[in-house]
Amino acid sequence: MNALQLIVRPDVAQAVGQGRPVVALESTLIAHGLPWPSNLETALAAEAAVRAEGVVPATIAVIDGRPVVGLCEEELQVLARTGRAEKASRRDLAAVIALGKTAATTVAATMALAFRAGIRLFATGGIGGAHRDTHPWDISADLVELARTPVTVVCAGAKSILDIPRTLEILETHGVPVVGYGTNEFPAFYVHSSGEAVSARVDNPVQAAHLMRVHWDLGGGGIVLAQPVEKHAALDPNAFLNALSEAEQNALGVGVRGKELTPYLLNRLAEITEGQTLRTNHALVIANARLAAQVAREFCA
Ligand code: PSU
Ligand code: MN
Q: pTM for the whole thing?
């Protein structure tokens, strides 16, 4: 018997079984990336954006040891409200399942579960990456999972709390295409562009879906499909950098590190910018969910 018993919501299982499009959504951004209640609002709006494209959304998390693909609204509420969920990246997944815990899944862990449920498109805000030189050894497991799991992650690039050039070099080493959607530059999450080049550009969902098929026929793993946050919702790059320096100094001051670092920085940034980062985060998650659904439709066509 398989020791991994995925719990797949019936409409998700049916869509996958019939070859209809499904988009996976992650839960760490709900439980640890955004504060109540904007986390629940964002989670529900992302699902609604996927449904509006005629595609089935499947938010993923581990609930009392059950790896659930397609949370119900009550389960979303639990993750968003209680703050008792752990943060499970790839290395934590087996432990939280085997030990019966409740955990939000990061990009890495969500990719792993989505793929095992037959889902190839996944939308989030930003991927993890190599942290800046205040925390030089901290490299997200998201990059390693992208190297090996054939799922396309639609995102607004990498969070600008990271060392983006180094993150892109690591992805190149692992053969991960970093594809700009309607852009030649890798976006930087809250900021419109990082100024770094993407490895390829597509301009519509048909091209994106075709690139995915070819990459996977070549035996490739994950793909990053990056679209910039809309200009009017983006943060000013200089104002953002100042806020980031302050947040990083705070992180060093309190000695936060490891898996606490990303949530700490995001939370401090929201405080320092008086909520501006939350509005930007919300806008880009919704836009990415919509794009992932459009590409999923083409991929299944
Ligand atoms: N994007 C957001 N908010 C988040 C994250 C991404 O808008 O909270 C999460 C993702 O789940 C990502 C994780 O996988 O941060 C990276 O954490 P770490 O650096 O510990 O790998
Ligand atoms: Mn990290």
A: 0.96
